[in-house]
Specification:
It is a single chain. The chain starts with about 25 loop residues before the first helix and ends with a helix. It is built from eight helices and seven strands; from the N terminus they run ααββαβαβαβαβαβα. Helix 1 packs antiparallel against helix 2, helix 1 packs across helix 4 and helix 2 crosses helix 3. The protein is globular. With about 270 residues, the chain is of the alpha/beta class. It has one domain: Glycerol-3-phosphate (1)-acyltransferase (3-Layer(aba) Sandwich). It has a seven-stranded mixed β-sheet, sandwiched between helices.
Length: about 270
């Protein structure tokens, strides 16, 4: 496979990963978690209706600043201190697929804070049935990924993806298809890489560290602390074909996983 974009060796150009933090447990952690969930829930359900109503009369792209304020406030109330780090070869002007590891329910909000572009995401269609959150995601233009992969639903997803990219909207994808149970990066599925090659759309690998210790699928506990988002070099896909899907998938996964593996290597 040939490409003019980032190579795996470019990943160390980023600053060193933060030091691993042992997840906290115990009574005080539970009390603190309950407090953060309560204030986040109140803020979310008080703010969402206003954003949904505004989106019915104003193109969501025209009030991106309000949406960013919302995600910054929400993650701050949850206790996440977000830092974005960008590789020298990251091109913020290119419409791209942002390929990230999936850790917890806050991932979309963390990435909205960190990515300096107008972005939307590919998201399980079942999420659109969640009160408030689902209404907002549907109105804002997230693309539903069907649970049952029948041809009609897949064609609809493909059509919506093509329309979003054509209008200059970058898309966030979690190719693991599920939240990690270990903090490490799981296997990637092929779908988004097929779409990237079909449309000739660049890919930006994204590594998120600290989120697993902040909150994870294994429990409801929340530990405030730093969450670091690495935006790696933009990878070109123009000129590649379907035979390159697997090698591109594995290459991107290795780029995403490398800083996370380094992060966990500091565990004592």
């Amino acid at each position: 496979m040939t490409s003019s974009g980032s190579e795996i060796a470019s990943a160390p150009a980023l600053p060193p990963a933060p030091v691993y933090r042992t997840p906290a447990r115990g009574f005080l952690t539970n009390v603190r978690s309950f407090y953060h969930w309560m204030i986040c829930g109140c803020y979310f359900f008080l703010t969402c209706p206003w954003l949904v109503i505004k989106a019915t009369v104003v193109n969501p792209r025209k009030h991106d600043r309000a949406q960013r304020r919302f995600t910054r406030h929400l993650t701050h109330l949850a206790g996440a201190r977000i830092e974005a780090r960008m590789a020298p070869g990251f091109d913020p002007t290119r419409t791209s697929f942002f390929i990230a590891n999936h850790v917890n329910l806050f991932d979309p909000f963390v990435l909205y804070c960190a990515v300096p572009q107008f972005i939307r995401g590919l998201e399980l269609e079942s999420h659109f049935k969640i009160p408030a959150y689902g209404w907002m995601m549907k109105r804002f233009g997230n693309i539903p990924v069907p649970a049952m992969r029948n041809p009609a639903d897949l064609k609809r997803m493909w059509r919506l993806t093509e329309a979003a990219l054509a209008s200059g909207i970058s898309l966030v994808v979690f190719p693991e298809g599920q939240r990690t149970l270990t903090g490490r990066v799981g296997p990637f599925k092929n779908g988004v890489f097929r779409m990237a090659l079909e449309h000739g759309t660049p890919i930006v690998p994204v590594s998120v560290m600290g989120s697993f210790e902040f909150n994870n699928k294994l429990g409801w506990g929340m530990r405030p602390g730093p969450v670091t988002v690495f935006l790696h070099d933009t990878i070109e896909t123009a000129g590649l074909d379907k035979e390159d899907v697997v090698s591109l998938r594995d290459r991107v996964r290795e780029i995403v996983a490398r800083p996370i593996d380094e992060y966990y290597s500091t565990k004592t």
